[in-house]
Amino acid sequence: MMVEAEKPGRRALAKQRRRQQLIDATIKCISKKGLGSTTLGDVAGEAGLSQGIVNLHFNSKDNLLAETLRYLAEEYDEQFMQTLEKSPPNPAARLSALMEMALKPAVCEPRKLAVWFAFWGEVKTVPTYRKICADREQKYDDIIRGLVQDIIREGGYDGRDAKTVADALSSITDGMWLSCLINPKTFDRTTAWNAVRSYLSAMFPDHYL
Amino acid sequence: MMVEAEKPGRRALAKQRRRQQLIDATIKCISKKGLGSTTLGDVAGEAGLSQGIVNLHFNSKDNLLAETLRYLAEEYDEQFMQTLEKSPPNPAARLSALMEMALKPAVCEPRKLAVWFAFWGEVKTVPTYRKICADREQKYDDIIRGLVQDIIREGGYDGRDAKTVADALSSITDGMWLSCLINPKTFDRTTAWNAVRSYLSAMFPDHYL
Amino acid sequence: MMVEAEKPGRRALAKQRRRQQLIDATIKCISKKGLGSTTLGDVAGEAGLSQGIVNLHFNSKDNLLAETLRYLAEEYDEQFMQTLEKSPPNPAARLSALMEMALKPAVCEPRKLAVWFAFWGEVKTVPTYRKICADREQKYDDIIRGLVQDIIREGGYDGRDAKTVADALSSITDGMWLSCLINPKTFDRTTAWNAVRSYLSAMFPDHYL
Amino acid sequence: MMVEAEKPGRRALAKQRRRQQLIDATIKCISKKGLGSTTLGDVAGEAGLSQGIVNLHFNSKDNLLAETLRYLAEEYDEQFMQTLEKSPPNPAARLSALMEMALKPAVCEPRKLAVWFAFWGEVKTVPTYRKICADREQKYDDIIRGLVQDIIREGGYDGRDAKTVADALSSITDGMWLSCLINPKTFDRTTAWNAVRSYLSAMFPDHYL
DNA sequence: AATGAATGAGCTTTCATTCAT
DNA sequence: TATGAATGAAAGCTCATTCAT
User: Fold this and answer.
1) Which of B1, B161, B196, D99 lies 20 to 30 Å from C97 when distance is taken between CA atoms?
2) Interface test with A, best of B33, B39, B117, B140 (most A CBs within 10 A)
3) How many CB pairs under 8 A join C and D?
4) Tally of structural domains, chain B
C-alpha cells in the first residue's frame, strides 16, 4: 500500500520528471510573458506537450503556480544551504559568502528575478504565496541573525543589535534585486557587492577589510 | 445643496476628477485582489459607476493601469520633493529625512506596497512600467548620490564611494518594503529605521549619532 | 396648430437642414467604413457635431439608416425624372438617355455605389429597405417597359417582348454597377456604354445606330 | 453504431468537417439575419455547438467570414467549371449553358443571393472580400470573353466586340440577381432566361434560335 | 499517460441610447 | 437645440477545465 510512496518506481519517477518539466516551462513562460499573461496553453506549448497536460499533472493552474513558487524557493534554499556548508566555519566568512551568493549571476539574473517579483506581486493577494515567502524569509533571517550575533560576540562590537544588522543585510540584497530587475542594463554586480562590503566593514571593521 | 459633494457617483464630475476617482478605485482594487484579478468591472463597481466607464475615460485597461502607475509615481514624487524642501539645508539632515520618509507609515503601508509590487511584478514584461520605474529610480539615485557626495566632502570621509553608499541606501529601503509586504505583522518600523541609522552612523560617524 | 407643418418656419427649416447634414454625413461614413462599421459617433463626428445629435433628430439608428436610403432613392429619382423631362420626346432617345444617366460618373462612382450595395446587402433582412428598393425598381421597370413598348410599336419589331427587354436593360446597368464596385480600376465607362448600345442596336436596329 | 452520424454535434468530427459545418451555419445565419446581425453566438447555436467553437476553429470572426466567402466562391466555381465540362464542345452551347446555370434555382435562390449581396455590401470596405470577388470576376470574364470570341470568329460577326458582349452578358446575370433579391415574388426565371436568349439571338442570329 | 476538441464562464471593449445641463 | 458624460446590454475573444479517444 505504502510501497508507492516509499520507493518510487519507474512510474512515479516518470511522473515526477514530467512535473518538473512543466514547472521549468512555467518559469520560462512567466519570465517571458509575465505571470498574468501566462496561460496553461503557453506552458504546455513551451514543454512541447498538449493542452490538457497541466491539469492532468497539477489539477489546476493555481496549484501549478504554487508548486512553481515552491520549487523556486527550494532551488534557492539548496544554493543557500550549500553555500553555508561549503564556506569556512567562521561566521564572518559564512556571512559574506551568503551575501555574495545572493548577488551571483545565477541568482540575480533578470529572468529569474522577473519570476520572483511576479510572485511577490501577488503575495498580498494569495495566501499560499505569502506563506511560502514568509517561511523562507523567516528561515534566512534567523540564520543571518545568528551569524551576525556570533560576529558581534567575537568582535565585542558593543551597541550593535544583531536583528537590526541582519534586517539591513537582507534588505540590501532584496533591494539590489529590484534595481537589477528594473535596470538590468545599468545594474552593476561589482558596485552591488561593494555596497554590501562597505556596510559590513563599516559595521564590523575588525572582521571585514 | 451639498448633495453634489455627497454623492460623487452619477453625474459629471469634472473630467479630471472622474479620472482620479477611477485611479483611486483601481489602486484599491489592486491592493485588495491583485493586479491579475482586478477587472474593469471591479474598478467601476468600487467607484460606484457603470461597466463602460473605464473605457470611456481611459480607452483601455492597459492605459488605465499605466496611468495608475504614473499617478502612484507622481504621488511618491511629491512626498519625496516636499521632504527635500522642508528639511534643513545640510545634506546629512536631508538624507536622513528622505530615508525616514521612505519608512513612513503612509508610504510603507502594506496596501500601497501591494500595488507597487504588483506593478514591479510586470516590469520585466511591460515596457511602459519599466520606463516609469526606471526613470524614478534614476532620479532618486541621482539625488541621493548627490547628498552622499556632499556629506563625504564635508566630512572628509576618504575611501567612501558615493555611488556605492547611495546604492546601499536605496536598496535598504526597497528591501524593507519587501519585508513589510511579506510580513506586515512582524515588520517593525523602528527596527527598520534603526538599521538605516546604524548604517549611516557607521559610514559617517561625524554626521550621525 | 398645423401652421408648423403647413409653412415651415425658420425653426423647421433649420431642423430640416440639420437632418440633411446628418444624412450626408451618414453616406460619407458608409462609403468610407461600410454600413456595419458606421457608428452614430462616426456620423456625428463627420458632421462636426456631438454624440447625442443623431438620436435627437432621428430617434434611432435604424431610422437614420432608413431615412438615408430614402434620401438616396429620392436623389436618384430626381436625376431619373429630370433626365426623362429634358430628353427629346421620342422613346428611343429617352431610353438611351436613361441608360446613359445610369452610367454617368455622378451615379456610378464607387463611393456612392458602395452605399447602395451596403443597403442591398441588408435588403433580405430589413423589410424597410426591401420596400424602398422594390418600389423604385417597380417604378423604373414600368417606365422603361413603357418606352420599350413604344419603340417596339413604332418599329414594328415583332416577336420582341417589352418586359423581357426592359428586364435585360435594367439588369445590365445594375450588373455594371457591381463591376464598377468590385473593380473600380479596370471598370471602363465607355465599354459599359458600348455594351448597352450594342444591346439596343441588336434589339432595335432601326432605332439605334 | 450509426449514432456518430446521427448527431453531428458534440464530439470530434474531423477538423475539416467541423469547419465546413460552421461555414454552413454561417451562411444560414447570414441569409436569415444579415451579415451585420450575425453573431458568433448565432453561428455556434445554428451548428448546435458552444460559444467558443468558432474562435477555436477560425481564430476570429473576420476570418470566419472571409473563409465563408471563399467557400461560396469555390462552390460557385465548381458549378461553373462543371457546367463548362459537361456542355457540348461548341462555344455557343457552352455559353448558353453558363448563362442558364447562372439563373438556375440552386444558384439564384434568394437565400444564397442574400449572402452574396451581404458580402458585396462590404466589398468596398474589406480588402479581402474585394480580392476574392475581383479574382472570380476576372476569371469568368476571361472565359466568357473567350467563348464569345470563338462565336464571333465562327459566325463571322464583323463589328461585334467580344469584350463588349461579354460585359453585357455578365452584367445581365448579375443584375438579374439583384432583381431576384429585391423582388423574389415577382422575379420570373423564364423572363430572365428569355432576356438573355433574346440578347444572344439578336447578337448572334446564326447561332441562337 | 497523453491528447486535443469542446465547453462555457468571464473578460475587455464597443456603442446605441439616455438625460442633466 | 445641442452637448457629452454616463449607462448597460451585447459582442468578440480568451482560456481553465473537462473528457472521449
Assistant:
1) D99
2) B117
3) 179
4) 2
For residues C111 and A84, give the distance between their C-alpha atoms in angstroms, rounded to a whole number: 78
Q: How far is CA D186 from CA C190, D178, D180, D181, D191, in A?
A: 32, 12, 8, 10, 11
Residue A5 reports pLDDT greater than 70: no
Whether residues B20 and B80 share a domain: the answer is no
Q: How many CA atoms, within 13 angstroms, populate the side-chain half-sphere of residue B197?
A: 15
Q: Do residues C74 and C124 share a domain? A: yes
Instruction: Determine the residue of chain C that is closest to D141 in CA distance.
Output: C179
Q: Can chain D be said to touch chain C, i.e. do they have 3 or more Cβ pairs within 8 angstroms? A: yes
Instruction: State whether residue B110 sits within 8 Å of chain A by CB.
Output: yes
B127 neighbourhood in chain A, CB within 8 Å: none
d(CA C30, CA C47): 13
The residue written with cell numbers 466555381 in the block is: D77
A103-148 pLDDT per residue, tens: 999 999 889 999 999 999 999 999 999 999 999 999 999 999 999 9
C114 touches D at CB < 8 Å: yes
Q: Residue range D6-23: average pLDDT?
A: 74
Å from D11 to nearest chain C CA?
Answer: 33
Distance from CA(A193) to C1'(E4), angstroms, rounded: 50
Residue range(s) defining the domain that contains residue B41: 1-59
Contact status of A45 with chain B (Cβ, < 8 Å)? no
Question: In this structure, are residues D168 and C199 in contact, taking their beta carbons and an 8 Å threshold?
Answer: yes
Using the CA of B55, give the nucleotide whose C1' is nearest.
E13
> Same structural domain for residues C180 and C91?
yes
Where residue B180 sits, what CATH number does that domain have? 1.10.357.10
